[in-house]
Model the fold of this input.
Amino acid sequence: MARIVIPEFMDERAVAGLRTSHEVLYDAKLVDDGARLLKEAAACEAFIVRNRTQVRGDLLKALLGGKRCKVVGRLGVGLDNIDVAACEAAGLPVVPATGANALSVAEYVVGTAMLLLRGAYQSTAAVAGGQWPRTPLSNGREIGGKTLGLVGFGSIGQLTARLARAVGMHVAAFDAMLDTDHPAYAEAGARCAGLDEVIAMSDVVSLHVPLVDSTRGLFDAARIAAMKQGAVLINPARGGIVDEVAVAAALKSGHLGGAAIDVFGTEPLPKATHFEDCPNLVLTPHIAGVTAEANERVSFLIAEKVSQLLAAPGARSAR
Done:
């Protein structure tokens, strides 16, 4: 019976399934107890995290130093909170939940694009208070016929393209890792284009790239200025890709017609005065890929993969 430590939230039924064959410590608040987290990590065969647990530095040393851990499961797809290279060098597999939350992110993008283009869904207090802002709210834009630009065209970007096409959008996509003739573009109904072209032509730009050296600060003030006047920017990918201060300035100047930011350079986001009084802005707490259904899919997928690796003989190379 292997010992599994889960320091962030996971679907309770998936946890219960793991408990039928393993000893499981599940404590969604453990991520905030550094000393205890290190102690438990050193004594586990499997470690399952979301995005807040930083599997690097002292925590990674604890996992490797215990000489017991056989797998790190990631309840999501982004791996910037895990030192993957160090794990690989030590023969410690890192398993993401690839594809399991793609639909949630895609729906977030298309739904938020609709909200920001229309600009009419924040009038409840005014209407209930006796106001009737019909004239200023009659200039919203339809999503049909608009161009969605996708920066990053992996599984999430491809599904987002399909949903966008279903509501009448045109789609252009850029991905530095895909050949220009990759069949994924045609299959999703997206036009392959260069990064600068995607940015310049799109009414809505959505980001779907990991946070690596080449994408850090990718959308700075200059790139935001290169977007179409009145375009919408959506970032459900990773904080650090977008200059948050530049987004706020572009909203206040009217260059950006709207923005939705789900991820931030520092999480939880400290008080951000630069976002005060920004028009047509949606800020969400890193939940684009987290819905009831996605949490279930992600949790059960990782539970299955972790169980398989724990059961496999010689799953981890000797150090």
Summary: The chain has twelve helices and twelve strands.
